[in-house]
Amino acid sequence: MAYIKDEEINAIREQADIVDVISDYLSLKQRGKNFLAVCPFHDDHSPSLVVSRERQMFNCFTCRTGGNVFSFVMKFENVSFPEAVKIVADKIGYNLSVSNFSDYQTVKGPEYEIMDLAKKFYLNNIFTEAGTKAIKYLEDRGIDLNIIKEFNIGLSLGDKDTLYKVLNAKNYDSDTMANLGLINKVGLNIYDTFTSRIMIPITDLKGQVVGFTGRIYNGEEDTAKYINTKETDIFKKGHILFNYHNARNYIRDQKEVIVVEGNMDAIKISASGIKNVVALMGVALSKEQIAVLKKLRVPIILMLDNDNAGLDATVKNGEMLENAGVEVKVVRLSGAKDPDEYIRALGVDALKENIKHAVKYMDFKLEYLKNNKDLSNMEDLITYVKEVIASINNADDLTKSVIISKISKDYAIDPEILKQELNKNTLKEQPKVEPKEIVTRPKLSKYHIAASKVLYHMMNDPNYITIYKNRLGYFKEKQERALASEIVYYNNVHNNSINIADFITYIIPQEEIYNYVTEIIGENNNTEISPTEFNNCIDCLLKLLKNDEIKELKVRIKQELDINKKLELITKLTELKKGSVNK
Questions:
Q1: Which of 22, 92, 309, 340 could bridge 268 with an S-S bond, Cβ 3.0-4.6 Å?
Q2: Which CATH architecture has domain 110-235?
Q3: Are 95 and 4 in contact (CB under 8 A)?
């Protein structure tokens, strides 16, 4: 299994300037010693993400997300820790001793192991004699051996249960196989779900196989052309964009992403050298897919099928993306039903020209609204103008102004009349707008605030670890004790030395503690690291812990029936109360 040495991880972290790395993803503006950006991890409308070059940390004032360069890349790219290390290493030109990360994933359950084994089984089949016809079919469609290997395209055999036998021999549970949609159980009989089909693996955003698309290739037109894996615990169509894992680096380089409908369209376009392409798992974008696309922070080119369903989907998806604040362009191909067919008919250069001249979504929408209307007819013209005005209700002021000016000029309509119509629509829409829910954070207890500050100090300076051990040495909450223990251990191993950015790298694999660390960082944006602050927090915790113990003793005294034990508890309570608060 691939393994990155700690020495390499630390060297990469030290050489990678967090400001330089994050500026590849976000627009940073310097404010004093720090840098500010709009936070990509919540619906942020004003800069609330702070990046510190001095401390090599980032944190958000609003959503309290924070960490070091690796944790930013993990969260932004939605990748595992080792993948984030590799991405950062590539950015700074560091040559990792490990090159293959296919086996170095986050912890996998049996479901992922089964799907990975199924992928390898299908891939092996296509390179046997049984796969000759399937390879010929793919090559005739412009998909050569290199693309077959790149996308791990495989073949399910004609026998009813070959995959089941392979997985069963590995002692995998048949119920798990059935739940994953790989087999069907009918009474005592077991059948493979996919037989005699070209198999296209579907991966999640991290690149792990979670499903398959099976396509006929041998002329069996009496059966469904495509069969897709059913939705499972690990396969949610609305959470996946086909080819995202392969395309994301090309998307960053090209500064745009092409969105198509079908898996085969994405494969064919990628095979043609256009690698910044992803495919929907259906025709409608989900809110989860929109969130992934928005995070890319590049223009989106919608290139859906050239039929009525594809046209309607372009309108609806474009609307949702624009409302989400994403720049959208549109390509409508003519002379073919989809990009795959278009490339076969007219060639890749023609496709590239279409992409190069993609139209802005609003221009496309204005033309779309003309469909089935005779604009020389007054009634149709009035309908069209009203639909245009309604469609720009949520647009920015500049867009509204430009469109009103254009409509006014093209159809000789008084711009003031158009503005009145727009205002009327806006007022009409207002009652439908629900008031925004005011999000208030739960008030943190004195104990939580003090404990958070103590732990924050300990992660920043080993001197505070020593004071903690001498003065406190204990937290009442499990997660606090676990984090304190890790801080002490890390400090000991590193010869009484701790750096918060390096400590985060160390703690990332322990997800629960890592999440707590990011919470503490978010809560302590403005905390001054000072002995006075630290000791005040220790004093506060000691008093609160003592008060908790007093309350507990009072309860035990009331419940104790043995007079001698009760007297012992009363004596202990009296001693404990000396010097305590809130007696």
A1: 340
A2: Alpha-Beta Complex (3.90)
A3: no
